[in-house]
Design a protein that fits this description.
Layout lengths: L20 H7 L11 H10 L4 H7 L14 E2 L4 E4 L5 E10 L8 H10 L3 H11 L5 E9 L1 H6 L19 E7 L7 H6 L12 E2 L4 H18 L73 H10 L2 H15 L4 H12 L3 H10 L1 H8 L1
Antiparallel strand pairs: 1-3, 2-3, 2-6, 3-4, 4-5
Helix pairs in contact: 2-11, 10-12, 11-12
Protein name: Catalase
GO biological process, one term: hydrogen peroxide catabolic process
GO molecular function, one term: heme binding
C-alpha cells in the first residue's frame, strides 16, 4: 500500500495542539475589509502564543527562502512509532537531507524573482529532472526508546521542538530520488490526496497532538475537495493492490469496486481487516481532559538556535527580516513581540528594537 509522510521543510511547526491549527491559518488570511495582507493579525497571533517562537525564527532565518526545492531538507516533523516483527516499538522521527546541499536565496533575490519568474522553484526542479540531473535526498531516522521518552527533558510529542542530534543521532536508511516529471499536471498533481492515515505495517502514529489532528483533517479535506472515492483516482491508488473499502457511489467512483457489498459484516467476500495491519498497544494513565500547554518550555530550544547555531551574520539577517514586516503591525503588537523575542535572548530583542522605527521614534520623544 501507500505510505504518505506528512511533513515540511522545517523540523518543527508553529503550534503544538491541533485545535490551534485553524486559528493559525485564519491569522494568515487577508484583512476582511481591505483585502490586504494583515500583519496585525499575523503578529498578534504569534506574540500571544510563544510556542510559535521556534518556527518563526527558522521562517525568518536564511533557510526561510530555499533556493528551489532541490536545495532544502525535508522533515516528517511529527513523532511516529516504528514496530518490528517482534512487536517491539520505538519512537522515531523521519528526515530527508538534500544531497545537493543547502542553498538559500537572499530576500533581495527572492523579491526580484517574485516579479520576474515566480515559478522559479518549479522550473528549476522540472528542468533538472528533464535533463537527467535527478535530485536526491538521503533518508534518515532518529530513534527514541519508550523508556527514555517517559523521562526526557522535553515532551517528545511536541512538534514545536526538535530531538537534538547529540542525543538521538541520525541513522541513514535509504534514498529518495526524483527521476520522472509528471506527464499530466492536473491528473498527477492537482488530484493528489496525500493522507497521513496512509500508513504501512510497522509505522504507526503517536500521541503527538498535531499529528492526531492531521489524521482527521486531511481525509476530511480530501472528501470535500475530491469526493469520498478519492482513493480510486489513479494517482492515489496503491500500485500492487486494489482499493478495498465499503465506500460506494458518489463522485470519483471509478469502478464502483465491481458491485461489492457496502456493509460489514457480509456473506459476499467483502474486504476483511488485515491482522498484520493492527497497531501495537501502549499503556496510558491520567485524566481525560483538555490540557493547556501554553506554559511548556517555549524558549530553551530557540535560545540554543540563537546562541549555538546561528552565527552573528545569520542573527543580523534574521532580525532584519523580522523587522521588515513587524514594523507594519500596530505599535502595541510590536512591543509585545519584541518582549517575546527578548525572552529568547536579550540581544535578540535589542537588535529588533534598533531596527524598528517605532522604537526609534519613542526614544526621541
Amino acid at each position: 500500500g501507500n505510505w504518505d509522510l506528512v511533513g515540511n521543510n522545517t523540523p518543527i511547526f508553529f503550534v503544538r495542539d491541533a485545535f490551534r491549527f485553524p486559528h493559525f491559518i485564519h491569522s494568515q488570511k487577508r484583512n476582511p475589509v481591505t483585502h490586504l495582507r494583515d500583519w496585525d493579525a499575523f503578529w498578534d497571533f504569534i506574540s500571544l502564543l510563544p510556542e510559535t517562537t521556534h518556527q518563526v525564527m527558522i521562517l525568518f532565518s536564511d533557510r526561510g527562502i530555499p533556493d528551489g526545492y532541490r536545495h532544502m531538507h525535508g522533515y516528517g516533523s511529527h513523532t511516529f512509532k516504528l514496530v518490528n516483527k517482534d512487536l517491539q516499538p520505538v519512537y522515531c522521527k523521519f528526515h530527508f537531507r538534500t544531497d545537493q546541499g543547502i542553498k538559500n536565496l537572499s530576500p533581495q533575490t527572492a523579491t526580484k524573482l517574485g516579479g520576474t519568474n515566480p515559478d522559479y522553484s518549479i522550473q528549476d526542479l522540472y528542468d533538472n529532472i528533464a535533463k537527467g540531473n535527478f535530485p536526491s535526498w538521503t533518508f534518515y531516522i532518529q530513534v527514541m526508546p519508550f523508556e527514555e521518552a517517559e523521562t526526557y527533558r522535553w515532551n517528545p510529542f511536541d512538534v514545536t521542538k526538535i530531538w537534538p542530534q547529540s542525543d538521538f543521532p541520525l541513522i541513514p536508511v535509504g534514498h529518495l530520488v526524483l527521476d520522472k516529471n509528471p506527464g499530466n499536471h492536473f491528473a498527477e498533481i492537482e488530484q493528489l490526496a496525500f493522507n497521513p492515515n496512509n500508513l504501512i505495517p510497522g509505522i504507526e502514529p503517536t500521541p503527538d497532538k498535531m499529528l492526531q489532528g492531521r489524521l482527521h483533517s486531511y481525509i476530511d479535506t480530501h472528501i470535500h475537495r475530491l469526493g469520498p472515492n478519492f482513493n480510486q483516482i489513479p494517482v492515489n491508488c496503491p500500485y500492487r493492490v486494489r482499493v478495498a473499502n465499503y465506500q460506494r457511489d458518489a463522485t470519483m467512483a471509478i469502478d464502483n469496486q465491481n458491485g461489492a457489498p457496502n456493509y460489514y459484516p457480509n456473506s459476499f467476500k467483502g474486504p476483511e481487516p488485515t491482522p498484520n495491519g493492527a497497531w501495537s498497544t501502549y499503556d496510558a494513565t491520567g485524566d481525560v481532559k483538555r490540557y493547556k500547554t501554553e506554559d511548556e518550555d517555549n524558549f530553551s530550544q530557540p535560545r540554543i538556535l540563537w546562541s549555538n547555531v546561528l552565527d552573528d551574520g545569520a542573527r543580523d539577517r534574521m532580525t532584519t527580516n523580522i523587522a521588515s514586516v513587524l514594523k507594519l503591525a500596530a505599535p502595541f503588537i510590536q512591543e509585545r513581540t519584541v518582549k517575546m523575542f527578548s525572552q529568547v535572548h536579550p540581544d535578540f530583542g535589542a537588535r529588533l528594537r534598533n531596527k524598528l522605527p517605532h522604537f526609534q521614534e519613542s526614544s526621541e520623544e
